[in-house]
Amino acid sequence: MPRMKLQKVLPMAYAPVLALETYARKNNDRRLYELVKIRASEINQCHFCIAMHTRDALKHGESQERISALAGDWRAADLWTEAEAAALAYTDEATRLGEGGVTDAVWDDLVQHFGEKGAGHLIMAVVAINAWNRIGISTGLTADDL
């Protein structure tokens, strides 16, 4: 059982995060969107979000092999298109945000494959899942809460 249900305690604060999520879902390819969500959730170890987005990815036709590869060194698996690899590399760097932030090479590859507008849509998806991961982890959500 979670520590709190934030949407009930602070509905006015929860609503903008939900609106960002709705925007990101509507403006990204659904399968890629789920892969990005799973990858960020794996990095952050948000088991609630991993379970939810794995379920949704499978529902949208994603393979278990590709989903499983996201838990480790996804680059080692020859399973991704160049565009997917660019999105996943961006997800890794934007989720971890070290001192250097997102490198120029990763940024340039993202924009090359998606254009500025598409890159912007992916940024919103990564921002949204990182917010959800922090909400889920800090409030104690688990996969059993789905």
From TrEMBL:
Keyword Oxidoreductase: yes
Pfam families assigned: CMD (PF02627)
UniProt entry tagged with the keyword Oxidoreductase: yes
Top-level taxon: Bacteria
GO molecular function: peroxiredoxin activity
InterPro entries attached to this UniProt entry: AhpD-like (IPR029032), AhpD_core (IPR004675), CMD-like (IPR003779)
Residue span, Carboxymuconolactone decarboxylase-like domain: 20-93
Keywords: Oxidoreductase, Peroxidase
NCBIfam families documented for this protein: ahpD_dom (TIGR00778)
PANTHER family for the chain: 4-CARBOXYMUCONOLACTONE DECARBOXYLASE FAMILY PROTEIN (AFU_ORTHOLOGUE AFUA_6G11590), CYTOPLASMIC PROTEIN
Name of protein: AhpD family alkylhydroperoxidase
Annotated organism of origin: Ornithinicoccus hortensis
